[in-house]
Amino acid sequence: MQHFDVVVFDVDGTLLDTSEGVLASVKYTIKEHNLPEVDEEVLKTFIGPPIQNSFSKVYGLKGDILQELATTFRNQYKDVDLLKAVPYEGIYSVFEALIKEGKKVAIATYKRQDYATKIMHHFGFDKYTDIIYGADHENKLKKRDIIELALKDCGVKDFSNAIMIGDSDNDAIGAQEIGTQFIGVTYGFGFSKKEDICKYKNVGSADSTQELVSLLVGDK
Predict the structure, then answer these.
(1) How far apart are CA 167 and CA 189, in angstroms?
(2) Strands 162-166 and 6-9
(3) Exposed end of the chain (fewer CB within 10 Å): N or C?
(4) Looking at the predicted structure, is the pLDDT value of residue 128 above 90?
(5) Does 36 have pLDDT greater than 70?
């Protein structure tokens, strides 16, 4: 791992277990639009990526219906299910250790910007950073764009001096595309084992938040 000044975190599956809220809203949307039910393993694939992409992939849908599904999901999620989440054990200690070492931290998530800001404030992550970037309403931003916005806000000019931490292919690809170092975590929703992370350029992998602290600041 080379020198780094900034660490950027994904949210779903990295900072928070958001499965209860996301899956409740997905099930609500499926029922409201009379779509066929799917099993729990398929439902879990909705956690993390843009919601239109998930409905398109699972149901083979295209066009205006995807926006209708997204609107139903977002209204339910925003009004009812957003805060049904649990911080991963030890995740605050990761932030504390980084701040103690003088590192900057930021958030880059596929959650919509207003949702990202609300949920980060609710769970107290705004104590560590006010640099929180999420998806736009039109879903035009890719993960690389969101990471890049966060890094620029941190004043980073050389993106290789930063680390992206996430649990999914989207996080790894986004980091790789802009030349940012990447650490994958396997305790979330995407990567289930360290071998999954080896498909991408990375500087480490962690099965727990404790292992993540060791990777970032050493055993102190």
Answers:
(1) 7
(2) parallel
(3) C
(4) yes
(5) yes
Judge whether 102 and 7 are in contact, CB under 8 Å: no
Residue 169 belongs to domain spanning? 6-17+87-217
Residues 7-39, buried b or exposed e (16+ Cβ, 10 A)? bbbbbbbbbbbbbebbbebbbbbbeeeeeeeee
Amino acid letter at 125? F
Do 12 and 28 share a domain, yes or no? Answer: no
Whole-angstrom distance between the N-terminal and C-terminal Cα of the chain? 18
Task: Tell whether 65 is covered by a domain.
Answer: yes
What the block records as the tokens of 63 is 């066009």
The 10s digit of each residue's pLDDT in 47-79 is 888 899 999 999 999 999 999 999 999 999 999
pLDDT for the residue numbered 63: 92
Domain annotation covers residue 29: yes
* Domain membership flag for residue 1: no
Q: Do both 24 and 127 map to the same domain?
A: no
CATH number, domain with residue 166: 3.40.50.1000
Of 81, 104, 129, the one marking the end of a domain is 81
Condensed to tens digits (0 to 9), the pLDDT of residues 138-183 reads: 878 999 999 999 999 999 999 999 999 999 999 999 999 999 999 9
Q: Please check whether residue 193 lies inside any domain of the structure.
A: yes
* Cα–Cα distance, 5 to 107 (Å, whole number): 14
In contact, 182 and 169? CB cutoff 8 Å: no
